[in-house]
Design brief:
16-stranded antiparallel beta barrel; 350 residues; mainly beta; globular; 17 strands
Length: 350
């Protein structure tokens, strides 16, 4: 048995035991929590699949590995602070990412945050790396990977919580950023972004069994693209991104749909799941258009080992069309753009 296999099995067993029992409450006003995911995954295509994960036909034990720690401090009834550090799938263990770090101020139904904040593009944005928080092993990559894994910004947001009636609430959040930078590696190509400005508006109506989310974000940016042949600077450009998400539950049945539209994408997915005690089977169909063209079908089963640990088994078929590479990050040398992906994923929180 390979060392990586042994490490995966040992990690799985130890994390299952740990997260079943662990709770960290430092004081009444200071808390420490954590989350993580680890998987065995493999496709039937030698060309890497998914930006930031790069899954191939070699069995991979760390393509999804995620570990995060979050600390929260409440100074008084109005002021609080939060910090979250995450070893994302694309990060080395020695260089995790500061996903958010902010100071918050609350008064009545208004909340102000200043610092590094989560970009609220999607239904699962707030807990994007917390695999235990959503049903599938990964959020739909057709939609969530359209922004190349950029999940945070540095700036300010203000949130108004408005009670519409006894069962429904409206949340309105304008946000803006200062200049920041970031790097995304796609195979052998590196994109260095200088994000000069971000302006956005997030809204959500929610009730006991439903959520409806709309987000608009405007980005002004420049980018340097580095390949093995050299580097090229692209002048400042801008993009407007519109996202819509709807989630509704009927007893054990849940339907989730999200759409992303910008000048390069028209991507969407729809997923249906049905909870039966500790088991939740689910089906997702997704399409991507314009720059990335493909359609996919995903079948999965989630099993709740405990209230804090879950296991996902998934099969996905994705098919590129229109001369696109689809979800493959480079053009396949053999021209094969059809992919079947197999995943066994363990998620936990503490």
């Amino acid at each position: 048995m390979k060392i990586s296999n042994i490490c995966f099995i040992a990690t799985t067993l130890s994390l299952t035991t740990f997260t079943t029992n662990a709770r960290i409450n430092l004081t009444d006003d200071i808390s420490l929590s954590g989350f993580g995911s680890t998987s065995i995954t493999q496709s039937n295509n030698s060309t890497p699949l998914y930006v930031n994960r790069e899954i191939t036909d070699d069995t991979c034990y760390d393509c999804d590995t995620t570990l995060g720690l979050q600390g929260d401090i409440r100074f008084n009834d109005s002021f609080n602070a939060s910090i979250q550090v995450v070893k994302r799938p694309q990060d080395d263990w020695s260089s995790p990412e500061l996903e958010w770090a902010y100071i918050g101020y609350s008064i009545s139904d208004f909340n102000l945050k200043i610092g590094r904040l989560r970009l609220p593009l999607f239904l699962s944005s707030e807990y994007y790396y917390v695999g235990q928080a959503y049903t599938p092993a990964r959020p739909s990559q057709e939609v969530y990977n359209s922004v190349l894994g950029i999940t945070s910004y540095e700036g300010i947001s203000g949130t108004w919580d408005i009670e519409l009636n006894d069962d429904s609430y409206l949340t309105l959040t304008p946000y803006a950023s200062i200049e920041s930078d970031g790097t995304v590696d796609v195979g052998v190509v590196s994109y260095d972004f200088d994000i000069e400005k971000t302006l956005g508006f997030h809204s959500e109506i929610s009730g006991f069994d439903y959520r409806i989310m709309f987000n608009y974000a405007h980005f002004k940016y420049a980018v340097d693209v580095t390949t093995p042949l050299g580097s090229q600077h692209y002048a400042t450009d801008s993009i407007n991104i519109y996202t819509l998400g709807i989630e509704n539950s009927w007893d054990q049945l849940t339907l989730t749909t999200e759409v992303l539209i910008d000048k390069m994408h028209f991507n969407w997915y729809s997923s249906i799941s049905y909870n039966i005690d500790k088991f939740t089977p689910y089906v997702t169909y997704a399409e991507s258009h314009h720059a990335q063209q493909n359609n996919s079908l995903l079948l999965g089963l989630r099993y709740e080992l405990t209230t804090t640990v879950s296991l996902n088994a998934e099969w996905k078929y994705t098919d590129a069309n229109g001369g696109s590479n689809g979800e493959l990050i480079t053009a396949p040398t053999d021209g094969d753009t059809d992919v079947q992906l197999y995943t066994l994923m363990l998620n936990f929180i503490f």
